[in-house]
Amino acid sequence: MTRPLRIAVIGSGPSGMYAADALASQSDVEVSVDVIDRLPVPFGLVRYGVAPDHLSIRSVRDTLDKVLDKPGVRFIGNVEVGRDISLAELHDYFDGVILTYGASRDRRLEIEGEDLDGSVAATDFVAWYCGHPDADRATFERLIPSSTSVAVVGVGNVAIDVTRVLAKTVAELDDTDMPQHVLDTLGTSRITDIHLLGRRGPAQATFTTKELRELGELLDADVIVDPADLAFDAASDEVIRTDKAIARNVEVIKEWSTRVPAGRSRRVHVHFLARPVELRGDDRVREVVVERTALDGSGGVTGTGELTIIAADFVVRSVGYRGTGLDDVPFDAKRGVIPNAEGRVERDGKAVPGEYVAGWIKRGPTGIIGTNKKDANATVASLMADAESGALPSASAGSAREFDDLLASRGIAAVSTAGWRSIDAAERALGATAGRARTTIHETGALLAASAD
Ligand code: NAP
Protein backbone atom coordinates (compact mmCIF):
# COMPACT_ATOMS: atom_id res chain seq x y z
CA MET A 1 0.00 0.00 0.00
CA THR A 2 1.52 3.36 -1.00
CA ARG A 3 -0.73 5.56 1.11
CA PRO A 4 -0.96 5.40 4.93
CA LEU A 5 -3.44 3.03 6.48
CA ARG A 6 -6.54 5.12 7.31
CA ILE A 7 -8.26 4.34 10.59
CA ALA A 8 -11.32 6.04 12.14
CA VAL A 9 -11.72 5.90 15.92
CA ILE A 10 -15.31 6.61 16.95
CA GLY A 11 -15.29 8.27 20.37
CA SER A 12 -12.53 10.34 21.96
CA GLY A 13 -12.77 9.11 25.55
CA PRO A 14 -9.83 7.30 27.15
CA SER A 15 -10.23 4.09 25.12
CA GLY A 16 -10.42 6.02 21.83
CA MET A 17 -7.43 8.18 22.66
CA TYR A 18 -5.41 5.18 23.85
CA ALA A 19 -6.30 3.36 20.60
CA ALA A 20 -5.16 6.40 18.57
CA ASP A 21 -1.97 6.52 20.63
CA ALA A 22 -1.25 2.84 20.05
CA LEU A 23 -1.78 3.26 16.29
CA ALA A 24 0.40 6.36 16.11
CA SER A 25 3.14 4.86 18.27
CA GLN A 26 3.75 1.67 16.27
CA SER A 27 6.33 1.84 13.53
CA ASP A 28 5.43 -1.16 11.34
CA VAL A 29 3.01 0.70 9.07
CA GLU A 30 2.35 4.38 8.41
CA VAL A 31 -1.09 5.14 9.83
CA SER A 32 -3.34 8.18 9.79
CA VAL A 33 -5.99 8.26 12.50
CA ASP A 34 -9.12 10.40 12.63
CA VAL A 35 -10.65 10.46 16.11
CA ILE A 36 -14.31 11.31 15.54
CA ASP A 37 -16.60 12.49 18.36
CA ARG A 38 -20.22 13.63 18.36
CA LEU A 39 -19.29 16.44 20.78
CA PRO A 40 -17.20 19.47 19.78
CA VAL A 41 -14.65 18.59 22.48
CA PRO A 42 -12.57 15.47 23.09
CA PHE A 43 -11.94 13.12 26.05
CA GLY A 44 -15.42 11.74 26.81
CA LEU A 45 -15.77 10.63 30.42
CA VAL A 46 -12.47 12.23 31.41
CA ARG A 47 -14.20 15.55 30.76
CA TYR A 48 -17.81 14.55 31.45
CA GLY A 49 -17.55 11.72 33.99
CA VAL A 50 -14.50 12.04 36.22
CA ALA A 51 -15.55 14.18 39.19
CA PRO A 52 -14.36 17.78 38.69
CA ASP A 53 -12.90 17.85 42.22
CA HIS A 54 -10.64 14.90 41.38
CA LEU A 55 -8.04 17.18 39.88
CA SER A 56 -5.27 14.62 39.59
CA ILE A 57 -7.48 12.08 37.76
CA ARG A 58 -8.80 14.84 35.50
CA SER A 59 -5.22 15.77 34.62
CA VAL A 60 -5.16 12.55 32.55
CA ARG A 61 -6.62 14.81 29.90
CA ASP A 62 -3.20 16.42 29.47
CA THR A 63 -1.80 12.99 28.62
CA LEU A 64 -4.66 12.28 26.22
CA ASP A 65 -4.28 15.74 24.67
CA LYS A 66 -0.66 14.99 23.73
CA VAL A 67 -1.92 12.16 21.50
CA LEU A 68 -3.60 14.79 19.30
CA ASP A 69 -0.14 16.30 18.65
CA LYS A 70 1.21 13.05 17.23
CA PRO A 71 1.85 12.98 13.47
CA GLY A 72 -1.11 11.52 11.57
CA VAL A 73 -3.64 11.95 14.41
CA ARG A 74 -6.56 14.35 13.87
CA PHE A 75 -9.52 15.23 16.10
CA ILE A 76 -12.82 15.61 14.25
CA GLY A 77 -15.49 16.78 16.69
CA ASN A 78 -19.16 17.63 16.30
CA VAL A 79 -19.68 14.70 13.93
CA GLU A 80 -22.13 12.01 14.97
CA VAL A 81 -21.86 8.60 13.37
CA GLY A 82 -25.38 7.38 12.60
CA ARG A 83 -26.66 10.96 12.15
CA ASP A 84 -24.11 12.91 10.12
CA ILE A 85 -22.45 9.93 8.50
CA SER A 86 -23.22 6.23 8.42
CA LEU A 87 -20.88 3.44 9.34
CA ALA A 88 -21.10 2.14 5.75
CA GLU A 89 -19.88 5.53 4.50
CA LEU A 90 -16.99 5.47 6.96
CA HIS A 91 -15.86 2.21 5.37
CA ASP A 92 -15.53 4.12 2.09
CA TYR A 93 -13.01 6.49 3.65
CA PHE A 94 -11.22 4.32 6.21
CA ASP A 95 -9.60 0.90 6.04
CA GLY A 96 -10.59 0.19 9.62
CA VAL A 97 -13.06 1.60 12.14
CA ILE A 98 -12.56 1.24 15.91
CA LEU A 99 -15.75 1.82 17.91
CA THR A 100 -14.96 3.31 21.31
CA TYR A 101 -18.15 5.24 22.03
CA GLY A 102 -18.51 3.93 25.58
CA ALA A 103 -21.57 3.23 27.70
CA SER A 104 -23.34 6.49 28.28
CA ARG A 105 -26.82 5.43 29.45
CA ASP A 106 -27.97 4.52 32.95
CA ARG A 107 -29.00 1.08 34.15
CA ARG A 108 -32.51 0.96 35.58
CA LEU A 109 -33.61 -0.07 39.07
CA GLU A 110 -36.87 -1.56 37.72
CA ILE A 111 -38.87 -0.60 40.81
CA GLU A 112 -42.17 1.23 41.21
CA GLY A 113 -41.88 5.00 41.35
CA GLU A 114 -38.53 5.07 39.58
CA ASP A 115 -39.75 7.73 37.15
CA LEU A 116 -41.27 10.09 39.73
CA ASP A 117 -40.12 13.68 39.44
CA GLY A 118 -36.99 14.11 41.59
CA SER A 119 -35.67 10.64 40.77
CA VAL A 120 -32.74 11.01 38.37
CA ALA A 121 -30.02 8.84 36.89
CA ALA A 122 -26.50 9.50 38.18
CA THR A 123 -25.40 9.68 34.53
CA ASP A 124 -27.64 12.79 34.14
CA PHE A 125 -26.54 14.40 37.39
CA VAL A 126 -22.86 13.82 36.62
CA ALA A 127 -23.37 15.23 33.10
CA TRP A 128 -24.93 18.34 34.64
CA TYR A 129 -22.19 19.09 37.15
CA CYS A 130 -19.48 18.42 34.55
CA GLY A 131 -21.09 20.88 32.11
CA HIS A 132 -22.13 18.40 29.39
CA PRO A 133 -23.87 20.24 26.52
CA ASP A 134 -26.85 17.83 26.65
CA ALA A 135 -27.39 18.18 30.42
CA ASP A 136 -30.84 19.07 31.70
CA ARG A 137 -29.95 22.27 33.51
CA ALA A 138 -33.51 23.27 34.44
CA THR A 139 -34.18 20.03 36.33
CA PHE A 140 -31.18 20.39 38.64
CA GLU A 141 -31.66 24.11 39.12
CA ARG A 142 -35.16 23.22 40.38
CA LEU A 143 -34.31 20.09 42.41
CA ILE A 144 -31.21 21.23 44.30
CA PRO A 145 -32.62 24.32 46.06
CA SER A 146 -35.90 22.49 46.83
CA SER A 147 -34.48 19.30 48.38
CA THR A 148 -33.42 18.57 51.94
CA SER A 149 -32.82 14.81 51.94
CA VAL A 150 -31.22 12.83 49.12
CA ALA A 151 -30.98 9.07 48.56
CA VAL A 152 -28.13 7.86 46.37
CA VAL A 153 -28.75 4.27 45.31
CA GLY A 154 -25.64 2.13 44.80
CA VAL A 155 -22.23 2.01 46.45
CA GLY A 156 -19.84 2.23 43.50
CA ASN A 157 -17.39 5.05 42.77
CA VAL A 158 -19.99 7.06 40.85
CA ALA A 159 -22.30 6.99 43.90
CA ILE A 160 -19.39 8.22 46.01
CA ASP A 161 -18.66 11.04 43.52
CA VAL A 162 -22.30 12.14 43.51
CA THR A 163 -22.51 12.05 47.30
CA ARG A 164 -19.28 14.00 47.72
CA VAL A 165 -20.34 16.72 45.28
CA LEU A 166 -23.65 17.10 47.15
CA ALA A 167 -21.99 17.05 50.57
CA LYS A 168 -19.18 19.51 49.85
CA THR A 169 -19.39 23.22 50.44
CA VAL A 170 -19.09 25.43 47.36
CA ALA A 171 -15.73 26.65 48.71
CA GLU A 172 -14.49 23.04 48.48
CA LEU A 173 -15.48 22.96 44.79
CA ASP A 174 -14.20 26.35 43.76
CA ASP A 175 -10.87 25.09 42.41
CA THR A 176 -12.67 22.79 39.94
CA ASP A 177 -13.59 23.56 36.33
CA MET A 178 -17.34 23.24 37.00
CA PRO A 179 -19.38 25.78 35.03
CA GLN A 180 -20.27 28.83 37.09
CA HIS A 181 -24.03 28.09 36.93
CA VAL A 182 -23.36 24.67 38.54
CA LEU A 183 -21.43 26.23 41.43
CA ASP A 184 -24.16 28.87 41.81
CA THR A 185 -26.88 26.20 41.96
CA LEU A 186 -24.94 24.03 44.43
CA GLY A 187 -24.60 27.20 46.51
CA THR A 188 -28.40 27.33 46.85
CA SER A 189 -28.57 23.78 48.26
CA ARG A 190 -30.54 23.23 51.48
CA ILE A 191 -29.66 19.53 51.57
CA THR A 192 -28.89 18.32 55.09
CA ASP A 193 -28.97 14.52 54.73
CA ILE A 194 -27.58 12.20 52.06
CA HIS A 195 -28.31 8.47 52.30
CA LEU A 196 -26.00 6.16 50.38
CA LEU A 197 -27.77 2.81 49.89
CA GLY A 198 -25.85 -0.45 49.40
CA ARG A 199 -27.97 -3.55 48.88
CA ARG A 200 -25.21 -5.91 50.02
CA GLY A 201 -22.66 -5.71 52.86
CA PRO A 202 -19.57 -3.51 53.39
CA ALA A 203 -17.29 -6.23 51.96
CA GLN A 204 -19.32 -6.35 48.73
CA ALA A 205 -19.25 -2.62 47.90
CA THR A 206 -17.49 -1.72 44.64
CA PHE A 207 -16.00 1.65 45.59
CA THR A 208 -12.24 2.10 46.00
CA THR A 209 -10.66 3.04 49.33
CA LYS A 210 -9.15 6.39 48.32
CA GLU A 211 -12.52 7.61 47.06
CA LEU A 212 -14.30 6.18 50.12
CA ARG A 213 -11.93 7.87 52.59
CA GLU A 214 -12.61 11.30 51.10
CA LEU A 215 -16.22 11.09 52.27
CA GLY A 216 -15.02 11.01 55.86
CA GLU A 217 -12.82 14.08 55.42
CA LEU A 218 -15.28 16.72 54.25
CA LEU A 219 -15.31 20.19 55.74
CA ASP A 220 -18.95 20.44 56.77
CA ALA A 221 -20.38 16.91 56.61
CA ASP A 222 -20.46 14.13 59.19
CA VAL A 223 -20.36 10.56 57.98
CA ILE A 224 -22.58 8.13 59.87
CA VAL A 225 -22.64 4.31 59.78
CA ASP A 226 -25.00 2.24 61.93
CA PRO A 227 -22.93 -0.56 63.58
CA ALA A 228 -25.87 -2.90 62.83
CA ASP A 229 -24.95 -2.58 59.13
CA LEU A 230 -21.51 -4.10 59.71
CA ALA A 231 -22.58 -7.58 58.65
CA PHE A 232 -20.07 -10.14 57.47
CA ASP A 233 -20.55 -13.79 56.48
CA ALA A 234 -18.09 -16.48 55.44
CA ALA A 235 -17.94 -15.07 51.89
CA SER A 236 -17.16 -11.60 53.28
CA ASP A 237 -14.43 -12.96 55.55
CA GLU A 238 -12.87 -14.71 52.58
CA VAL A 239 -12.75 -11.57 50.37
CA ILE A 240 -11.44 -9.49 53.27
CA ARG A 241 -8.69 -12.06 53.75
CA THR A 242 -7.73 -12.28 50.08
CA ASP A 243 -8.38 -8.73 48.77
CA LYS A 244 -6.39 -5.95 50.42
CA ALA A 245 -8.52 -3.22 48.84
CA ILE A 246 -11.70 -4.68 50.32
CA ALA A 247 -10.01 -5.13 53.70
CA ARG A 248 -9.07 -1.44 53.64
CA ASN A 249 -12.63 -0.40 52.69
CA VAL A 250 -14.00 -2.40 55.59
CA GLU A 251 -11.54 -0.79 58.02
CA VAL A 252 -12.64 2.69 56.90
CA ILE A 253 -16.32 1.81 57.32
CA LYS A 254 -15.73 0.23 60.74
CA GLU A 255 -13.93 3.36 61.91
CA TRP A 256 -16.84 5.52 60.71
CA SER A 257 -19.28 3.40 62.71
CA THR A 258 -17.46 4.46 65.91
CA ARG A 259 -17.59 8.20 65.13
CA VAL A 260 -19.75 10.60 67.11
CA PRO A 261 -21.31 13.18 64.72
CA ALA A 262 -19.67 16.59 65.19
CA GLY A 263 -22.83 18.58 64.44
CA ARG A 264 -21.77 19.61 60.93
CA SER A 265 -24.38 21.06 58.56
CA ARG A 266 -24.69 17.92 56.44
CA ARG A 267 -24.83 14.25 57.29
CA VAL A 268 -23.81 11.40 54.96
CA HIS A 269 -25.52 8.20 56.12
CA VAL A 270 -23.91 5.10 54.62
CA HIS A 271 -26.31 2.14 54.72
CA PHE A 272 -25.66 -1.50 53.91
CA LEU A 273 -28.10 -4.42 53.55
CA ALA A 274 -30.55 -1.79 52.28
CA ARG A 275 -32.32 -2.61 49.01
CA PRO A 276 -34.70 0.02 47.61
CA VAL A 277 -37.95 -1.67 46.59
CA GLU A 278 -40.16 1.33 45.82
CA LEU A 279 -40.03 5.11 45.45
CA ARG A 280 -43.13 6.88 46.77
CA GLY A 281 -44.31 10.43 46.36
CA ASP A 282 -46.93 12.80 45.01
CA ASP A 283 -45.97 15.49 42.51
CA ARG A 284 -42.39 14.37 43.18
CA VAL A 285 -40.54 11.67 45.07
CA ARG A 286 -40.83 11.91 48.87
CA GLU A 287 -39.54 8.63 50.24
CA VAL A 288 -37.66 5.43 49.48
CA VAL A 289 -39.02 2.13 50.74
CA VAL A 290 -36.03 0.01 51.69
CA GLU A 291 -36.03 -3.71 52.41
CA ARG A 292 -33.49 -5.05 54.86
CA THR A 293 -31.45 -7.80 53.23
CA ALA A 294 -29.35 -10.58 54.75
CA LEU A 295 -26.07 -11.96 53.43
CA ASP A 296 -26.58 -15.38 51.85
CA GLY A 297 -23.09 -16.80 52.53
CA SER A 298 -21.94 -16.66 48.90
CA GLY A 299 -21.60 -12.94 48.17
CA GLY A 300 -25.27 -12.30 47.49
CA VAL A 301 -28.24 -11.29 49.63
CA THR A 302 -31.80 -12.38 50.27
CA GLY A 303 -34.70 -10.15 51.27
CA THR A 304 -35.90 -10.31 54.87
CA GLY A 305 -39.27 -8.64 54.25
CA GLU A 306 -38.46 -5.99 56.87
CA LEU A 307 -39.25 -2.58 55.37
CA THR A 308 -38.13 0.89 56.46
CA ILE A 309 -38.84 4.30 54.98
CA ILE A 310 -36.14 6.86 54.21
CA ALA A 311 -37.33 10.41 53.53
CA ALA A 312 -35.90 11.63 50.22
CA ASP A 313 -37.11 14.41 47.96
CA PHE A 314 -34.25 13.81 45.53
CA VAL A 315 -33.10 10.33 44.49
CA VAL A 316 -29.98 9.66 42.42
CA ARG A 317 -29.92 6.18 40.92
CA SER A 318 -26.25 5.24 40.63
CA VAL A 319 -26.45 1.57 39.71
CA GLY A 320 -24.09 1.50 36.75
CA TYR A 321 -23.79 2.62 33.15
CA ARG A 322 -25.20 0.79 30.12
CA GLY A 323 -23.98 0.65 26.53
CA THR A 324 -26.32 1.20 23.58
CA GLY A 325 -26.28 -0.10 20.02
CA LEU A 326 -25.29 1.73 16.86
CA ASP A 327 -27.08 1.29 13.50
CA ASP A 328 -25.67 -1.58 11.43
CA VAL A 329 -23.39 -2.81 14.25
CA PRO A 330 -24.08 -6.14 16.02
CA PHE A 331 -25.13 -5.57 19.63
CA ASP A 332 -25.58 -7.77 22.69
CA ALA A 333 -28.49 -5.94 24.33
CA LYS A 334 -28.37 -8.10 27.45
CA ARG A 335 -24.76 -7.21 28.27
CA GLY A 336 -24.85 -3.78 26.62
CA VAL A 337 -21.71 -4.51 24.59
CA ILE A 338 -20.69 -5.10 20.97
CA PRO A 339 -19.89 -8.81 20.55
CA ASN A 340 -16.22 -9.25 19.73
CA ALA A 341 -13.24 -11.56 19.88
CA GLU A 342 -10.01 -9.83 20.90
CA GLY A 343 -11.51 -6.52 19.78
CA ARG A 344 -12.70 -7.77 16.35
CA VAL A 345 -16.42 -7.06 16.02
CA GLU A 346 -18.31 -10.31 15.46
CA ARG A 347 -21.63 -10.96 13.74
CA ASP A 348 -23.00 -14.49 14.25
CA GLY A 349 -19.62 -15.59 15.56
CA LYS A 350 -17.68 -14.29 12.53
CA ALA A 351 -15.39 -11.23 12.42
CA VAL A 352 -16.84 -8.24 10.53
CA PRO A 353 -13.97 -7.11 8.24
CA GLY A 354 -12.52 -3.73 9.20
CA GLU A 355 -14.59 -3.27 12.40
CA TYR A 356 -13.08 -3.21 15.88
CA VAL A 357 -14.16 -2.21 19.35
CA ALA A 358 -12.43 -1.03 22.55
CA GLY A 359 -13.31 0.30 26.01
CA TRP A 360 -16.63 0.09 27.85
CA ILE A 361 -18.63 -0.75 24.69
CA LYS A 362 -16.30 -3.75 24.26
CA ARG A 363 -16.17 -5.13 27.80
CA GLY A 364 -18.86 -3.30 29.84
CA PRO A 365 -18.64 -0.31 32.22
CA THR A 366 -15.94 -1.48 34.61
CA GLY A 367 -12.41 -0.60 35.59
CA ILE A 368 -10.45 2.61 36.01
CA ILE A 369 -9.21 4.89 33.21
CA GLY A 370 -5.93 2.98 32.91
CA THR A 371 -7.82 -0.28 32.26
CA ASN A 372 -8.72 1.16 28.87
CA LYS A 373 -5.11 1.45 27.80
CA LYS A 374 -4.45 -2.28 27.96
CA ASP A 375 -7.85 -2.89 26.39
CA ALA A 376 -7.25 -0.47 23.49
CA ASN A 377 -3.72 -1.82 22.93
CA ALA A 378 -5.13 -5.35 22.59
CA THR A 379 -7.66 -4.17 19.99
CA VAL A 380 -5.02 -2.30 18.02
CA ALA A 381 -2.82 -5.40 18.10
CA SER A 382 -5.67 -7.35 16.45
CA LEU A 383 -6.12 -4.60 13.84
CA MET A 384 -2.42 -4.46 13.02
CA ALA A 385 -2.27 -8.26 12.73
CA ASP A 386 -5.18 -8.09 10.24
CA ALA A 387 -3.41 -5.32 8.30
CA GLU A 388 -0.32 -7.51 8.15
CA SER A 389 -2.23 -10.63 7.02
CA GLY A 390 -4.29 -8.76 4.42
CA ALA A 391 -7.56 -9.30 6.32
CA LEU A 392 -8.28 -5.57 6.43
CA PRO A 393 -10.48 -4.34 3.58
CA SER A 394 -8.99 -1.43 1.64
CA ALA A 395 -11.13 1.72 1.47
CA SER A 396 -11.90 2.81 -2.08
CA ALA A 397 -12.69 6.51 -1.86
CA GLY A 398 -10.70 8.02 0.65
CA SER A 399 -8.20 10.60 1.44
CA ALA A 400 -8.40 12.77 4.52
CA ARG A 401 -9.19 15.80 2.34
CA GLU A 402 -12.03 13.98 0.56
CA PHE A 403 -13.47 13.01 3.93
CA ASP A 404 -13.32 16.63 5.10
CA ASP A 405 -14.99 17.71 1.85
CA LEU A 406 -17.79 15.20 2.39
CA LEU A 407 -18.49 16.60 5.89
CA ALA A 408 -18.36 20.17 4.62
CA SER A 409 -20.72 19.32 1.75
CA ARG A 410 -23.25 18.22 4.39
CA GLY A 411 -22.94 21.54 6.21
CA ILE A 412 -21.31 19.93 9.24
CA ALA A 413 -19.19 22.33 11.30
CA ALA A 414 -16.55 19.76 12.23
CA VAL A 415 -14.15 20.82 14.99
CA SER A 416 -10.49 20.12 14.20
CA THR A 417 -7.60 19.72 16.65
CA ALA A 418 -6.89 23.44 16.14
CA GLY A 419 -10.55 24.18 16.89
CA TRP A 420 -10.32 22.17 20.12
CA ARG A 421 -7.14 24.09 21.06
CA SER A 422 -9.11 27.34 20.65
CA ILE A 423 -11.85 26.00 22.94
CA ASP A 424 -9.19 24.92 25.43
CA ALA A 425 -7.68 28.44 25.42
CA ALA A 426 -11.13 30.02 25.78
CA GLU A 427 -11.92 27.82 28.82
CA ARG A 428 -8.62 28.71 30.46
CA ALA A 429 -9.25 32.41 29.79
CA LEU A 430 -12.78 32.13 31.19
CA GLY A 431 -11.41 30.42 34.31
CA ALA A 432 -8.78 33.13 34.77
CA THR A 433 -11.52 35.77 35.01
CA ALA A 434 -12.60 34.05 38.25
CA GLY A 435 -9.13 33.09 39.48
CA ARG A 436 -9.58 29.47 38.43
CA ALA A 437 -7.40 27.31 36.14
CA ARG A 438 -10.35 26.63 33.82
CA THR A 439 -14.10 26.99 33.60
CA THR A 440 -15.95 24.51 31.40
CA ILE A 441 -17.96 26.02 28.56
CA HIS A 442 -21.19 24.04 28.58
CA GLU A 443 -23.22 25.07 25.51
CA THR A 444 -22.68 23.57 22.08
CA GLY A 445 -23.12 26.97 20.41
CA ALA A 446 -20.53 28.61 22.66
CA LEU A 447 -18.12 25.71 22.15
CA LEU A 448 -18.48 25.97 18.36
CA ALA A 449 -18.02 29.73 18.50
CA ALA A 450 -14.87 29.31 20.62
CA SER A 451 -13.56 26.66 18.21
CA ALA A 452 -13.73 29.14 15.34
CA ASP A 453 -11.69 31.83 17.12
P1 NAP B 1 -20.41 0.00 39.88
O1 NAP B 1 -19.07 0.05 40.52
O2 NAP B 1 -20.75 -1.21 39.08
O3 NAP B 1 -21.48 0.21 41.04
C1 NAP B 1 -22.84 0.02 40.85
C2 NAP B 1 -23.52 -0.05 42.20
O4 NAP B 1 -24.92 -0.15 41.98
C3 NAP B 1 -23.13 -1.27 43.02
O5 NAP B 1 -23.09 -0.90 44.39
C4 NAP B 1 -24.30 -2.23 42.77
O6 NAP B 1 -24.53 -3.14 43.80
C5 NAP B 1 -25.43 -1.24 42.74
N1 NAP B 1 -26.63 -1.78 42.11
C6 NAP B 1 -26.74 -2.31 40.87
N2 NAP B 1 -28.03 -2.67 40.63
C7 NAP B 1 -28.72 -2.33 41.75
C8 NAP B 1 -30.08 -2.44 42.14
N3 NAP B 1 -30.99 -2.95 41.30
N4 NAP B 1 -30.44 -2.02 43.37
C9 NAP B 1 -29.53 -1.49 44.21
N5 NAP B 1 -28.22 -1.35 43.92
C10 NAP B 1 -27.83 -1.78 42.70
O7 NAP B 1 -20.64 1.20 38.86
P2 NAP B 1 -20.35 2.77 38.91
O8 NAP B 1 -20.28 3.31 40.28
O9 NAP B 1 -21.33 3.34 37.96
O10 NAP B 1 -18.90 2.89 38.27
C11 NAP B 1 -18.63 2.45 36.93
C12 NAP B 1 -17.11 2.22 36.75
O11 NAP B 1 -16.45 3.49 36.75
C13 NAP B 1 -16.52 1.41 37.89
O12 NAP B 1 -15.54 0.57 37.37
C14 NAP B 1 -15.89 2.48 38.77
O13 NAP B 1 -14.84 2.03 39.58
C15 NAP B 1 -15.41 3.48 37.72
N6 NAP B 1 -15.25 4.80 38.35
C16 NAP B 1 -14.06 5.08 38.93
C17 NAP B 1 -13.88 6.28 39.58
C18 NAP B 1 -12.56 6.55 40.25
O14 NAP B 1 -11.63 5.80 40.07
N7 NAP B 1 -12.46 7.59 41.04
C19 NAP B 1 -14.91 7.22 39.64
C20 NAP B 1 -16.13 6.91 39.03
C21 NAP B 1 -16.28 5.70 38.38
P3 NAP B 1 -24.11 -4.69 43.60
O15 NAP B 1 -22.63 -4.71 43.69
O16 NAP B 1 -24.81 -5.36 44.71
O17 NAP B 1 -24.60 -5.09 42.23
Automatic annotation (TrEMBL):
GO MF entries: oxidoreductase activity
Domain FAD/NAD(P)-binding: 6-171
Cofactor entry: FAD
Keyword terms: FAD, Flavoprotein, NADP, Oxidoreductase
A Pfam family that the UniProt record links to this protein: Pyr_redox_2
InterPro entries membership: FAD/NAD-bd_sf, FAD/NAD-binding_dom, Ferredox_Rdtase, Ferredox_Rdtase_adrenod
SUPFAM superfamilies per the UniProt record, alphabetical: Nucleotide-binding domain (SSF51971)
Family that this chain belongs to: Belongs to the ferredoxin--NADP reductase type 1 family.
Protein name: Unannotated protein
Organism: freshwater metagenome
